[in-house]
Amino acid sequence: MEKYRVLKTEEDTKRLGEELARELGPGSVLALSGDLGAGKTTLTKAIAKGLGVSENLTSPTFTVVCEYDSGRLPFYHFDVYRVHDEDELFEIGFDEYLHRGGVCVIEWADLIEDMLPADAVRVRLSYGDGENERICEIE
Amino acid sequence: MFNGKHITLGIESSCDESAIAVLADGREILSNVISSQIEVHKVFGGVVPEIASRHHLHNLPFVMDEALSAAGVTLGDVDEIGVTAGPGLAGCLLMGTAYAKAVAAASGRPLIGVHHIQAHILANLIEYPGLEPPFLALVVSGGHTHIIEVRGWNEFRVLGATRDDAVGEAYDKVARVLGLGYPGGPKIDRLAKEGDPFAIEFKRVYLEKDSLDFSLSGTKTAVINYLHKETQAGRPVNSADVAASFQEAVMEVVIDKTMTALAQTGYSTLAVAGGVASNSFLREKLASRCEKAGAKLCIPSPILCTDNGAMVASAAYRKAGLGLYSDLHLDVFPGLSIESGLAKLEAGA
Hints:
Chain A is of the alpha/beta class.
């Protein structure tokens, strides 16, 4: 998959999510970063759909993590915006989720950079020139 | 029993707040203590709201002492102990239920697990004693946005829910991009009063025809895209107009769908619950729409809208009346359904 992609519309973001989903296996960790409205949740929803998750994903902002079991792999959706330090992450069982054989997608992952596993795939979303345009960088 | 009154203890710890209340005869608040509001534990190494479950462990004993002494009762006077068992953050729910179980085991009083949203809705009973099912409920908070048909005190049907962000969450996120700080709800509500609600036309998302579901993420993104565009063009942004127009866009959809649900179900009473029920714009608009529709509107005082122990006690009191008790095997359910999950809380489940 290319490292840099211009997403002209929300549809492009969804297509990228479904493409990413095909490359994920047990234990995959996707670390998403980008400003509010950059498309992190849109991308996460598309990844879940690509994995066959049938439930509607609601925002985990308040609960930090939401779990879904209806896809081809267990799917763990994190939003760590409200997490302040390593202890809090430890308390919600972050390490356990990483090693449960599912897929972890973490929104606002740049806030917990030190705690991400070394093999996490970094996906950075940012605003492009047009009103709806977004830029995606993957490493 | 205390002075001839039935005493219910309610314990809530599903998210940020550790809260305990003492209720007499199901509606008289003897005490309603919320951790973030008490001074005492600031002395004992202050615990500000945070997501860690450990803070509930620190807070609950202090909150309990305060709740019992403010009410002037002892554990021996308590008839049943209600506790939120879901939905919420697993670790936080665990702290509350473990604490409630310990208190139940030590005092020999029965334990009653309640659903967090059920508790929010039943908080209305404290100030509206005449409220009887069936009626319609609108639950709006930082974590929830639901239109619910209340068929009985322990029987609910979800008619509509958010497919992405909750109302309070959309407010928080917009407040963040406007640089207003947290919590965003009251700040946007206040700023909106100075702005023109029709200055900017933000996207209203109604979804499929007849759907009572919500999608609020699109309106949030519309605000962010607007700010981005204006900043790039070097134009000054009128924050008050943005706040007012955003509030108008979100609440218009919430209120329209609620009124549609009221018409569809044919119910004549609407009860509102959850933290966003404190929003002044929502309160005013709903009051006038309900008056026009000839419907009775119940909205509790702000202290009963936020997460609190009294709402849990209110729900536990009603469940006790129905004979729906839990036992010490009560588990926690982070994703508990209000439609199909309530039986999981009962003894022997």
